[in-house]
Amino acid sequence: MTDAARKAGRRLARDFNEIENLQVSKKGPADFVSKADFKAEEIIFDELSRARPGYGFLMEERGAVEGSDKTHRWIVDPLDGTLNFLHAQPHFAVSIALEREGELIAGVIYNPASDELFHAEKGRGAYMNDRRLRVSSRRHLEECVIATGTPYFGKKGHAQFLKELHKIMPFAAGIRRYGAASLDLAWTAAGRFDGFWERTLQPWDIAAGIVMVREAGGYAGSITGTGDVMETGDIVAGNEAMMNELRKRLADAA
């Protein structure tokens, strides 16, 4: 997993260096970024298929690819934070998770711009490069910096998000929106963020990050506490101590 993430990341890093030059080109950078996304996914698909020939895939670009081994599946986002990448902002990532019989058991999130490789395996902890990760220990929302994602153009949920923001922002130390859910979850696992919430995410946005937060000693699951977060895409994450307050305020906005 880590080798596949790094190899795809090296390709993205090379392409990222070309983005600023493309900002003023007649064609524009959007087509270039789309090709970079597909190329990174192709690299990951080839690497993981060689390593585990029978495993299936769920990928952002290719969709579902059935494997001969029905018990294992890779869940892949080759470029999370596409808009950041498009605007030459160095906050994007390769995200790969492994699912066994419906359970997430491993994850890798790699930011090529910072060369930070977050990785976790069930029962073995979470790490950033070689450093062990632990979620924040802050207990009260007033001490906490919370990350989130805003509904963008073409998506629903703007009114609901503003209601949630109204319930949380006055009581938190700060709110951040960086535009890459996988990295938001990795940073939550690392204690850089105290918590994270967002709605209507896709499985490849959150799969690796869920493993990361849980293995760093935190909670990552559905906002309501019921239902499968991989199906609903409505996620909240952070340490157990502040979850009750964050969840309560989100419920008040419902």
Automatic annotation (TrEMBL):
PROSITE patterns: IMP_1 (PS00629), IMP_2 (PS00630). It comes from Marinicauda pacifica. GO terms for biological process: inositol metabolic process; phosphatidylinositol phosphate biosynthetic process; signal transduction. Keywords: Hydrolase, Magnesium, Metal-binding. This is Inositol-1-monophosphatase. It comes from the Bacteria. One of its GO terms (molecular function) is metal ion binding. It catalyses: a myo-inositol phosphate + H2O = myo-inositol + phosphate. The lineage of its organism: Bacteria, Pseudomonadati, Pseudomonadota, Alphaproteobacteria, Maricaulales. Its cofactor is Mg(2+).
